[in-house]
Design a protein that fits this description.
Elements: E1 8-11, H1 14-40, H2 53-73, E2 82-85, E3 99-105, H3 113-124, E4 133-139, H4 144-167, H5 174-178, H6 191-220, E5 236-240, E6 257-262, H7 273-288, E7 293-298, E8 302-303, H8 308-316, E9 325-329, E10 333-334, H9 348-359, E11 371-374, H10 375-379, H11 390-397, H12 401-406, H13 423-432, H14 456-466, E12 470-473, E13 481-483, H15 489-507, H16 513-516, H17 523-562
Length: 563
């Protein structure tokens, strides 16, 4: 009987929908009257006009832009939906699909190494079968410190995962747990728990102290933090594992796989930022684990709830939804936001209103982090196709015959089946991580994460939706992931400049959502993509108009009266 129970439910708030649509209609009528009032100015006799025509027209244009932007934004409110999942109804662990976790970091000086390792450890502590969980850390800076810290994190995680499993710890990030954000269940009042907790805190302090000393040692030796020169180094791939002569604890739990990846970078080759790093992880992980699903995390976004994987699988495992489902997206929640938050660093409108509205229109926009992606959506499916031209696949995916084999669902990675990471396999993966491997292929243009825009998440999600894929937005009461956000004006301007340039790149290209979208997706969904793409342009022009034109006119009028 339990197998027939649904894994998830979708709630449609009918009252909110009626209210939103009624408000949109009334507000639109008010805008029409305002436009009529403005246009009637043009039919007044010239001698009756008290305002210069040109400034008036510019202000009117600014009002039209803001009105049009508001009209586009109403698509988000047309049909919002809210979702509930029942992970306890999933089948047994042996039937669940495997998951690869991708974490990207670039500079240990800008991204504190301890914070990055906390994200890695929290990912390893996900409530998921450890033999089906594989964590990959991409280090674009080629940092010796990051590699050393990854090895230390592996050793600390052996004790930490045992502690979390024993006492059912829900806050699986060590830093958050020991800073007072503990949420756990079980026999936590016992003297044994208190002793184990104190012991774990000592080990964690030793872990952090070891990373601090390693940083100081690299600085004193003049090595800096890079394996080679940052931005100019060879690829390095290392599967982190126990030393052969190292003794294992009796009560030690089974560990997920942890892999360190540093792709090759040369000044003469464009590295395509985060999208390039993710595509390297796609290829390397295919050789090692080739999991059908991928969790992508920013290095400062730790797992706050270990059940996120099972919650996402409530949709990916559903045979009615899964064939057309590309990704399940969780909101970005931040732990360093002040109470005032004058710069809206929480992006409340995005994650509490807009993405719920998009979820009712075939799914939200891909948002950079906190999503469980289906590998097939990025690479395609070739297992059911017959007579595939091998040379055509190599022109698309590169010259690696071993990687081409991974495109088949029947591919069984030897590394996870008792095989060892042989030198031949490591060399093959280094070739896949080389900066020249993507030359004359369709990586970044047709397969993988796309390079067309610096905002690779927005553009990749847009193309996936144009191809017919759907997405799901899941916003449970407990935040599944917690990260850090910019809290001052300088950080906000830097971030918005990057986002704005990426959105405008798409807006004024052949992929403009107004042109490219309506024939490939629903009209309302393409309107939402267009609203976001043109937001920097509409917002900038209209606000600059209101900020400069009235003041300029009044200043000129004041100067004229003084003569």
């Amino acid at each position: 009987m339990e197998k027939s129970l649904p894994l998830h439910l979708c709630h449609v708030p009918n009252f909110s929908i009626i209210f939103n649509r009624s408000h949109a209609i009334l507000h639109s009528i008010a805008i029409v009257f305002l436009i009529y009032y403005r246009v009637s100015f043009l039919f007044q006799e010239t001698r009756n006009r008290t305002i210069p025509t040109l400034p008036w027209l510019l202000i009117f244009a600014s009002e039209l832009l803001l009105s049009f932007a508001w009209l586009l934004a109403q698509a988000y409110r047309w049909r919002p939906v809210y979702r509930t999942v029942f992970p306890e109804r999933l089948p047994s662990d042996d039937k669940l699909p495997a998951i690869d976790v991708f974490i990207c970091t670039a500079d240990p000086n800008k991204e504190p190494t301890v914070d990055v390792m906390n994200t890695v450890i929290s990912a390893m502590a996900l409530d998921y079968p450890p033999e089906k969980l594989h964590v990959y850390l991409s280090d674009d800076g080629g940092s010796a410190l990051t590699l050393h810290a990854t090895k230390e994190a592996w050793h600390f995680a052996r004790s930490w995962l045992t502690f979390c499993r024993k006492y059912d710890i829900k806050t699986s990030c060590p830093e958050a747990y020991f800073s007072g954000s503990q949420e756990y269940h079980g026999d936590y009042k016992s003297s044994e728990f208190e002793a184990d907790s104190e012991n774990m805190e000592e080990k964690y302090e030793m872990f952090k102290e070891g990373i601090r000393r390693a940083r100081e040692e690299h600085s004193k030796n003049g090595k800096g933090t890079a394996i080679n020169q940052s931005g100019d180094h060879s690829s390095l791939i290392e599967v982190i594992q126990d030393c052969p002569n190292e003794e294992k604890q009796q009560d030690q739990v089974k560990m997920p796989l942890l892999v360190y990846v540093s792709r090759e970078k040369r000044p003469s080759h464009h590295h395509n930022f985060k999208a390039g790093a993710l595509n390297v992880l796609l290829r390397v992980s295919a050789m090692i684990s080739n999991s059908p699903y991928i969790l992508v995390l920013d290095c400062d976004m730790y797992c706050n709830d270990p059940t996120s994987a099972r919650q996402a699988m409530c949709y990916h495992y559903d045979p009615e939804i899964s064939p057309s489902l590309a990704f399940v997206l969780f909101p970005q929640t931040f732990r360093n936001i002040s109470k005032d938050d004058i710069y809206d660093s929480q992006f409340r409108s995005t994650f509490k209103i807009q993405w719920h509205g998009l979820d009712g229109l075939r799914g939200p926009i891909l948002s950079g982090t906190n999503f469980y992606m289906k590998r097939e959506a990025l690479l395609g499916s070739f297992s059911k196709q017959k007579g595939i031209d091998l040379m055509a696949l190599k022109r698309c995916f590169g010259q690696s015959s071993e990687f081409i084999k991974t495109l088949s669902q029947e591919y069984d990675p030897t590394l996870l089946n008792g095989g060892e990471s042989s030198s031949m396999l490591i060399e093959e993966m280094k070739e896949l991580a080389s900066c020249s491997y993507e030359n004359e292929t369709t990586w970044g243009t047709k397969v993988g994460f796309l390079y067309f825009s610096v905002l690779e998440d927005y553009f990749t999600g847009f193309i996936l939706h144009c191809k017919g894929w759907k997405s799901i937005y899941l916003n449970p009461p407990r935040p599944q992931f917690l990260g850090t956000s910019g809290t001052n004006l300088n950080d906000g301007l830097t971030q918005w400049t990057r986002w704005g340039s990426g959105l405008i790149q798409v807006a004024i290209s052949r992929f403009c959502p107004f042109i490219y979208g309506p024939l490939r997706m629903s009209l309302l969904q393409s309107v939402c993509y267009a609203e976001l793409a043109f937001l920097p342009l509409f917002g900038c022009l209209s606000h600059w108009g209101f900020a400069l034109i009235p003041q300029s006119v009044y200043s000129m009028a004041f100067l004229c009266t003084q003569r």
